[in-house]
Amino acid sequence: MSKEIRVRIAPSPTGNLHIGTARTALFNWLFAKHKKGTFVLRIEDTDLERSDPKYEKDILDGLKWLGLEWDEFYKQSERMDIYEKYIQKLLNDGKAFWCYHTKEELEQEQKEQMANKLAPRHICDHKYKIPQNKEGGIIRLNVDEKSDEKIKFNDIIRGEIEFEEKLLGDLSIAKNEKTPLYNFAVVVDDHETKISHVIRGEDHIPNTPKQILIGKALGFHNPSNPLGQVMPEYAHLPLILGSDKSKMSKRHGATSITEYNEEGYLPEAMFNYMAFLGWTPKDSEKEIMDKDEIIKNFDLKNVHKSGAVFNLDKLNWINSQYIKNLSDEELITKILVLSSRYQVLSNKENTIKKILPMIKERMEKLSDIKEFLFFFKDPEYEKDLLMWKKYETIDIQKTLEMVKELVTEIGVGAPDTLREKLDDLASKLKTDPDAKPDRGLVYWPFRVSLSGQKGSPDPVDIAVVLGQEEVIKRINKAIQKLK
RNA sequence: GCUCCCAUCGUCUAGUGGUUUAGGACGCUUGGUUCUCAUCCAAGUAACACCGGUUCAAAUCCGGUUGGGAGCGCCA
């Protein structure tokens, strides 16, 4: 009842922070914040071969970027003596033993079992023998292959789940006394750091009975629990899926949080989007919800059971909503960060400030600034883009000449006046006196000559930012193209 | 092959036996504004996998079928 809430995220530094790991971290964090509990970060680096400090850094940076700060930090590689103590205990108690079967033998055994339609598992006869030497073996937990026991546990999201003990086989728990394997290290750490709730992806459901068995052997069993459950409670989250509904992976697109950061997604938007993947607040139809409100509403009980497909369109939409809600100062700061990639943005704070109202509603992500680089440098485009409807090259050229005259005459300081004059020009240019003026004949080539884009903000607005001299220069370039 | 998990529009989801001609959001389509794009506004599109059972009544409960997914390492 009064048990303190303690949860953990336990990534292994064998790759960058994966979106699935980040979502698991997020749900753990939300649960902890909602319950005023403790969020623990544990780096699972027992496999020294595959672990790399650069990945650890990426994971830490990614979690911080998302705003998922941890309260406690552990590294398994720094806790090896603890595992050793428990491995020794199991060995001494006769609950674990050395297995000297070769990988080939194990493979062969599994092959035969599959061929005979049996559950693949290693039933080791070495547990009945006294080991002669300890070279080349590994340590396994002694599991009764004749047991009729069912290993049951309650999952907060899915209800009761059960497995048959005898189908598990003698699980590997350590490479040697000093080197624990995943399932063993998890159980020891969760116990030692008093984790109250294990919240992780549903791909860990099959690991749960193994960990319960290890926990029981270690004496971590909680006798007050009618299900005979070891200490933590479990909640298995639905997976994040790719468009083909299989587990999200590289081939589905960007999977690391770093990539989303670099593409110009805002951490708040990612937070919001990921929170709503596999969870919906009760009694709310809001899709845009800030951190505090999500924390307030968060409850494992309304986490969904089925996997959720990661949908970039929706993320883009949410991100665009967050961009629109940014203050000008915040947006400028974020855009300037991108100037390392787009050199022309360097020291252009004033220009960026001027174009903000134009680009804010057109950006889904910050990297979309690349569509607006024409504000900072000459646009490149094909001559044909200047053409409007069925008009001839010569018509467009003449129009541009007249627009140039207008700009030369009245400048760009009075946009409303310029617009009026451009409208007048359109009226003057119409061939059929009864038809409505075709403003496109004037505005389209003018706009293209300034932006080089088939879609962009209003040419007069662009002209105001560029200034008279630059505008005339660009119109001249366009006219040259047409000649 | 074995074990486990899951099943409402293309996608994210609301819905916990009657208020549902199944609601919202994204996407898409159309219209309005407009030189274009975007924004904004309006409208449209589209789903309870199937078969049984329980019940006066089932998307909602039960069973089965089918389908999808995950796990099956001396990785984590």
Task: Describe the structure in brief.
42% of the residues lie in helices and 11% in strands. By secondary structure, it is an alpha/beta fold.
Could you describe the 3D structure shown?
The chain has 483 residues and is α/β, with parallel strands linked by helices. The chain is built from 17 helices and 13 strands. The model has no long low-confidence stretch (mean pLDDT 93). The protein folds into three domains: 6-240, Rossmann fold; 326-375; 383-482, Arc Repressor Mutant, subunit A. Helix 1 crosses helix 9 (291-297), helix 13 (393-410) packs antiparallel against helix 17 and helix 15 (440-451) crosses helix 16. The chain starts with 5 loop residues before the first strand and ends with a helix. A hairpin with a 3-residue loop joins strand 6 and strand 7 (159-164). The chain is elongated and about 105 Å long. The strands form five sheets. The chain has a four-stranded antiparallel β-sheet with strand order 4-5-8-9. The structure holds one RNA strand of 76 nucleotides.
